[in-house]
Design goal:
single chain, 217 residues, alpha/beta, 55% helix
């Protein structure tokens, strides 16, 4: 029998915590997510505490409030970012917190806004986020990304389909990419990762050397 959407969403939450992040007992989790993703965020939070998280902190974003800034904020404010927020995230990561990003924002949200303002805001955010980002990309903390299908994103991916069909197709793609749908997704991921590690060790053991040619053969 095929699993229901809610069952697959629950499996996705388990994968996010136990495979993607690999959350350790006693570890904090810092999560960011669009407000549309609340159903998944609640399931992830449940799985995090079941895995022994000491604290789960979620920071939400909202497409409409983001648009309001570009429509109504003063021009001289677009070089400003919430440095205090990113400083706090960096402090959390230095203290051993894990990071999980739930993505599902409208990819074309700012397409009709002033590109100069968008660029300035992005530069300011990147500069403020840099200390925290360096800890993430340097693998000083365990981190992962999980997707949440939203109507705007689904229509961008499947523009010729009615919204409900596009949303269902995007969810199917997310679940398939996350290997969600079997009896025990976490166990399936473990078998997959074990197989990858075994192949890696086998290839490394062969000690293959690359051949470099300086001209036509």
């Amino acid at each position: 029998m095929n699993a229901s959407h809610q069952e697959r969403l629950s499996e996705l939450a388990k994968v996010a915590i136990n495979v993607g992040v690999g959350l350790q007992r006693g570890q904090e989790l810092v999560m960011t997510a669009p407000v549309d993703a609340v159903p998944l965020v609640r399931l992830i939070t449940e799985e995090a505490y079941k895995a022994g998280a000491s604290l789960v902190t979620t920071l939400y974003s909202d497409d409409q409030t983001t648009l309001q800034r570009f429509r109504y904020a003063s021009d001289d404010t677009f070089d400003k970012a919430s440095g205090w927020l990113f400083d706090g995230m960096a402090a959390a990561f230095r203290s051993g917190a894990a990071r999980l990003a739930v993505l599902g924002e409208d990819p074309s949200l700012l397409s009709e806004q002033d590109p100069t303002k968008v660029a300035r805001a992005n530069r300011a955010r990147s500069a403020a986020y840099k200390p925290a980002l360096e800890l993430i990309v340097g693998f000083d903390v365990n981190w992962s990304i999980v997707s949440y299908a939203t109507p705007a994103w689904a229509k961008a991916v499947f523009p010729n389909d009615p919204e409900p069909v596009a949303l269902a197709r995007l969810w199917d793609a997310i679940f398939a990419a996350s290997r969600v749908g079997g009896a025990d997704t976490v166990a399936a991921w473990k078998r997959h990762n074990d197989a990858l590690h075994a192949r890696t060790e086998w290839l490394n053991g062969k000690r293959y050397a690359a051949l470099h040619f300086r001209g036509p053969v």
